[in-house]
Amino acid sequence: MARCSVCGAPAIAYVPYQRRYYCPEHYAEFVEGKVERTIEKYKMIREGDRVVAAVSGGKDSATLLSTLSRLRGKLGFELYAFHIDLGIGDYSVESRKAAVELARRLRVPLVVFSLWEELGYGVPEAAVRLRRPACSVCGIFKRYLYNAVGVELGAKVATGHNADDLAAYSLKNFLFQELEAIGKLGPVQEGVPGLAATRIRPLYTVYEKESFLYTVARGLPFLHRECPHARLDSLDFKLKEMLNRLEEERPSLKLGLLSRLAKRAKDYPRPKESYARCESCGLLSSSGKCSFCRLTERLSGEPLGGWVRKRIRELFSGVTGQPSSCTWGGTSG
Ligand code: AMP
Ligand code: ZN
Ligand code: ZN
Fold this sequence. Notes:
Elements: E1 13-15, E2 20-22, H1 24-41, E3 50-54, H2 59-75, E4 78-85, H3 89-106, E5 110-114, H4 115-119, H5 123-130, H6 134-153, E6 156-158, H7 163-175, H8 179-183, E7 188-189, E8 199-200, H9 208-217, H10 235-249, H11 253-264, E9 276-277, E10 284-285, H12 291-300, H13 305-320
Parallel strand pairs: 3-4, 3-6, 4-5, 6-8
Antiparallel strand pairs: 1-2, 7-8, 9-10
Helix pairs in contact: 1-2, 1-9, 2-3, 2-9, 5-6, 6-13, 7-10, 7-11
Bound molecules: adenosine monophosphate (AMP) and zinc ion (2 copies).
Adenosine monophosphate is lined by residues 54-56, 60-61, 82-84, 86, 142, 159-161.
């Protein structure tokens, strides 16, 4: 039986690019160390920052929230968790339960925003009424809500995108020559004060498999199910499989790609249009009204961005202990 390279206890994991074996405790410490070094290297978080982790209930957000909760004292930042209940049947019911249990265990204040409770429709109903693919509607709702939370709280928004996700997205964008999109895939996506929140990706150097083993090693609750709208024949999934095969032959291929991407992200073209405010809600938009305001106008009869921003302030005022009128000075970083 393989033994931990640190302490000699029975090993649960082998890290090929280090040629080392780890027991559960030392494996968890290995992943936590990697996240800490990534945060430092890319200057993701500064002392005094407020960070909101977007938590879906899956393994990556469990790894994200656990590693950040262990670092918040040492690095001196405030940490909150944010879950969006997308209203996708049982899948969303179970995801929400996992997110609530995770935040409770890690003692991180959590805010849940339920599309059904707040807007009166979930992703599936909205997609049918708009005649658009569920994943595109879901992406617009999620991106708007992360951004609104970051701007309203003056916080950086952390997501659980792992190295496998980011390597596959960058390759896909390369295939379609969406160069502006590649430029946004670095470890930090800088915000614009009052308009767009800074996004950070603390799992930038953590592989999907590492994230899974970490949650097992730390015994964290998470939902094993995939979203029913996820498709195994999608290009994203095929690219991930292909990269996994290459990675088996060349350990740390993806990490190499991402480290080079982090250096070159600023050299990719940026959107040509200047930063504009949505005429309805005031957040970042490339045309008159932002996509969220346009979608909600069609669904609810009026654009709901401004209302959602106010609602987010109310929901967070309960956990931050700050009055809801306080805007905490726009985005930080
Ligand atoms: P996905 O968009 O499902 O690939 O998830 C990528 C990351 O987005 C997750 O690791 C979370 O940080 C965030 N995320 C996805 N779904 C949700 C959700 N329903 N609520 C909050 N955050 C989410
Ligand atoms: Zn050990
Ligand atoms: Zn808007």
